[in-house]
Write a structure and sequence with these properties.
The complex is a heterotrimer. Chain A is mainly alpha-helical. Helices cover 62% and strands 6% of the residues of chain A. Chain B has a two-stranded antiparallel ribbon. Classes of the chains: A mainly alpha, B mainly alpha, C alpha+beta. Strand 4 of chain A pairs antiparallel with strand 1 of chain C.
Amino acid sequence: MMVMERSFKYLDERLGTASLARKTLRKVFPDHWSFLLGEIALFCLVVLVFTGTFLTFFYNPSVKEVIYDGPYEPLRGGHVSAAYDSVLRLSFEVRAGLLMRQTHHWAALVFVAAIVIHLCRVFFTGAFRRPRELNWLVGIVMLFLALGEGFTGYSLPDDLLSGIGLRIFYSVTLAIPVIGTWATYLLFGGEFPAGDIISRLFVFHIMLLPALLLGLVGVHLAILVLQKHTQFPGQGRTERNVVGKRLWPEQTFKSISLLLFTTAVLALLGGIAQINPVWQYGPFEPFNVTSPAQPDWYIGFLDGALRLGPPWDLNLFGFTISEVFWPAVLFPGIAFGILTLWPWIERRFTRDRAEHHLLDRPRDAPVRTGIGAAGLMVFFIMFLEGGNDIFGVLLYVSVETITRILQWGLLVAPVLTFLVTYWVCKSLKRTHLRPAQVNAGVRLSRSASGDYETAALEPASEELEPSSK
Amino acid sequence: MRRTAILLAGIAVLALLLTPATGTATSRGAPGVAAQQQPSDSPALNARGLQLYQNACASCHGPDPNGPSYYPRVPSLKDTGGAAAVDWALRTGRMPWKDNKGPAIERGEPRFNEEDIRALVVYIGKAVGDAQVPQVDPAQGNLQRGRELYGQACSACHGMNGAGAALGGENIAVSLQNVEPQDVAEAIKIGPGQMPVGGGLTDYEYGTASSTQEVNDIARYVESLRTDPYNEGGAPIGGKGPVPEGFVAWVIGLGGLVLAARWIAGRG
Amino acid sequence: MSDSDQQGSERVDVDRQQGHGPANRQLTDDQRKAGRSAGIAFAVTVVAGVGLFVVYFSGGQNQLEGILFAVALGGLGVGVGIWANRLLDAREVVEERHELTSGPAGRQAFEDALAAEVGPVLGRRSMLVKLLAGAGGALGLALLLPVLSLGPAPGNTLKVTPWARGKRVVDEEGELVTLGSVPEDGFITVFPEGHEGAADAQALLIHVRPGSLKLPADRLAAVPEGTHVAYSKICTHAGCPVGLYRAENQSLLCPCHQSQFDVADGAKPFFGPAARPLPQLPLGVDEDGVLVAQGDFYDPVGPAFWDMNRGKR
């Protein structure tokens, strides 16, 4: 189109965009489905930003008391905070408001899930090794930011369920040794329920955390483009090349398709699957509580850790270390510390200082895969415990039984998981199976002395486009 | 072919998981012997009540309702809350006891018809000296006040949306999303099992005007959980909050998207 | 131009020579079929889009809107995906990786640039540099001062509640609580008069069965009639309201992490992660039969913190 050509010329004359654009469009990215997991997370973030912007036009971050006067009859005439009232108004009185709100919340759940599964892919294939340690760090920080965004976000409606979660967060901050009470009073603005916290969470949720998150997304992608993507070993793939499809047109079309599917799935869930029906929970009152009481799934491991935690508080020279410290401060500190420093921890033991652009298959690194599986098992046990009252009702087992089983499980299951995973990796390695390779068969030959010999045939090599003619 | 199969499987999973489920038995039980009035007395009714008691109840509760039961874990009927308790237990199918492990918490199909329930209520009520069966009228109740009271007294165990929860040990606070107003009035009066007598309401005294009004209010709110649950957002996924929601996010949300990714990209 | 660029442009020329340019392409059968499928998918999107307009302007309906958006987006996604995989001339391409490092020469050049003259008095021990460090430190700390304005000092506030000797006991609505307010095996939530709804003052008043309390004598004296015992409602684990009373067992359950407290035994925790009992509130009865507090809770309420047991309350 004439207009497009003229605009492109206009930009190029001033910014020199043409040659940079050409280099970028020709870049090659490998074409494996597991390399799209990070993109799923990215597209969830896109949905979050768009739906979230819509929500900010309606949400009022104020705890000032108002009288509810909307269509949710059981609450009419009741005293609620302005924040809660604004969320109900958006849900019931704004056309497509509830759809946007629910899509936003589903997108948050799937966003963190996609980050976790993307992290697992990176971990189990060893993609964090040199030169990508920095991008691993960036990714881990983004995981924390995503957790923070989720927690601050679902606490904004000031409903009974999230208010209980805020109370627990308050208590966990209190439990930090030495500085706990000060840190809590500064963060919340005083004794619980400090009203300031809702508007402060709002600032974190729409300004501070998204700014950091979006900035780091840029860094994450820039490093990825600069260092080029890793690839699985295979025909024609070496440490010195990248085999795949170009950014334009193939990868762009694929990414657009994935973006559309992501938005479609989230919109579907946002429309037909009810999530966080805050009007049913009612407004937050510090002396009321509802059962069952759980946080969103990605905080569920902390809830489970708190339920599993032993009732041991410590008294040191008159100072108290709360029993909450072990599961809610120490355990996440250690677990996430190991996760963050993993590239350097692994390097210390493998002494592998080489650059890696070819990925490991998980079976090629049995110790790493075993430790990763054991780590996932630890978190999985905590998730299960976090829902122990719900599973208890479902399975006709008491919460005490589930807790005891999982407490023992926490000691035993990770070790078992490591051993089993390690053994499975080793066995798989021994089969020498490689994916997507046709078994070309066996060559039967007869020697001069009359003995028969069998030899495996090499699979037919696939012709790649020659790099030069 | 394979892709179609996966697609169909996905739709099936979606349909399954989004079917409203309440997690506990949803049998509603008989509408209630005290729907209009106190059960009236008559010699035939008493005789029938005695006969039924001896056949169905005495083997556990003892030959005399006002006396001790045969087993330590079985309460004597003089302690359980009188006629109201009998009506409640029989109408909701919790009695006669149909399990051989633990207290009768889950509802079931009532074993007796209305007539027989009335007979037993009259007989046992007379025997233990507490023949009052509560009358409830949710139409007289104030929905907003009911919600407020429910939040103060009931939501801790039963959940603000009535979904129910575990209470530790073998105890469960049952779902209230499908119960009769009569159940509410009776349960508050008797405090069945682990439930506190008076249901957590202040100044609860059976028969007083204020308590009757409060019970009507709460019954009105509980009724609305069944008739008008305001599930505007779609399928409630059990109404149990973030745990089932997280499950759906992983299985349908991320699961669906991983399938999409596999369709879009190759294995290069 | 870099190496890969060179190869790239060579490849384009080769493409043109071999007649693989766009103008010379004939559609294969598969591409024709793919084009049809993509077309249908896009048509579905159009229909769904129209449907969205209809639904929205006729009042809107969340479920329908969600489904229609999903169909519209999904149709487009399917169409673009088909395009990506079957309509494009998608061949695998090889690109060489370039060295990531600048190499020792590059780094040396950078260091040379950085080491340009900064001033005559450089050196870690110079007075000027020390003063600079001091200035930076002082200013840095001073810039943090506004953070202290974010909240008050904790002081004593975590250890005291509005309960005090003589405060009458009321319920959430401010109604006075008497011995008859709670039936046996019942319980209610109470507050000090004038502080209804105060978060740290919330307490449970439980009417236990006579003779069941196992408290030491001085604590039992603060239980009117030996049956009306009051404990803090704030869980000593992580602060949730302990709203679940199991009347048969006379025990409390906290819904957040399933700590369980034995009401008859001073609300001591017997299961779950809580380490300390719920603090008891000493009660008495005034001449009008109204319950009154005889002081604040015996211990600080709520979850533990660093200096909980130090200093006065």
